[in-house]
Design a protein that fits this description.
It contains 3 helices and no strands. It has 54 residues and is an all-alpha fold.
Length: 54
Amino acid sequence: MGFATKEIGRMTLTLFNKYYDHYKNLFDFEMMCYKTGTTYQKAYEQAHESEKWF
């Protein structure tokens, strides 16, 4: 996520957990895209396609 060692050392546990949740969601999404062969563009289009039905 681009943090320097000094920044990580001063990070509180609450802030770490907040960033970790975002990182985990992004990592899971990227792994799902990798395993299914989906690109960001295809995922974006599928998300907007599913919104049209509501």
